[in-house]
Amino acid sequence: MLQSMTAFASAAKRADWGSATWEVRSVNHRYLDVHFRLPEGLHEAEFSWRKTINRWIQRGKVDCQLTFVPDASFVPTLHVNKELTSQLVDCVAQVHSQNEGISPKISALSLLKWPGVITIHPQDLSKLIPEFTTLLEKALDDFVMMRQREGTEIADILLCKLNDIFDIVHKARSNVALSFEKQKQKLMSRLEALGSFEKDRVAQEMVIFASKWDVAEELDRLQCHYEEVKNCLATKEPTGRRLDFLMQEMNREANTLASKSQDATLSKLAVDLKVIIEQMREQVQNVE
């Protein structure tokens, strides 16, 4: 089953310790790139949460944000460094005694802004990590379901485009033999109009012309790629990279088909083929 690399999910919980909300979002990326935005005191859990995400997701740029609003029991406590405060007051008085032009007034807020006067002692949040982990897994469950739903829609689009490619390849095969016969008759008519000519020599030139114009090999490879893409769409493993490679190969065969074409109908089919492959490639860019 295909999975899209674009998704969003959230999970929230409220308890006696406060409230928490996980938000998980992702966009397409060449590999798995996970970023966390966590409250202070929870960074120690990032490694284990990263491993959790690795079990659920294979590719994509994933942003995970945890918003935590603590209860009063988890609010950080503030401590004033009284010794440092006294020293600052003494320093202000000393500066004033040596420089009468300087006002001795100093506000309490100015003292509190001085580095080191206030020390923040955050509450230990480690006991809440299991709660947050369970909440993250709930968000990831919804997140993966959304990726699967979008992946199913992408697979349907790719299958529809793949059927169009099959029809074009079938038309091209039918057109090749008919076009070669027309070119042969056209050449023979021109030669007959000129008068005498060596039939053996003409036969040799026709063989050379046919070998240069032959696109059977390209059509065969397109057919093989068609089958491989169908297999990729049916597998349960992540196939985004493989599908991207197949799109490149199919585009290369379409380019060769267009360059070898000596017929307007075949040229048009080659252009249509390139358009469809490009449309598929744009969809594949978002597949995990």
Automatic annotation (TrEMBL):
Cofactor(s) it depends on: a divalent metal cation
PANTHER family hit by this protein: UPF0701 PROTEIN YICC
Q: Which residues does the UniProt record annotate as the domain Endoribonuclease YicC-like C-terminal?
A: 179-288
| Entry similarity comment | Belongs to the YicC/YloC family.
Q: Where is the Endoribonuclease YicC-like N-terminal domain?
A: 2-155
| The protein's name in its UniProt record | YicC family protein
What GO annotations for molecular function exist for this entry? Answer: hydrolase activity; RNA endonuclease activity
Q: Which UniProt keywords are listed?
A: Endonuclease, Hydrolase, Nuclease
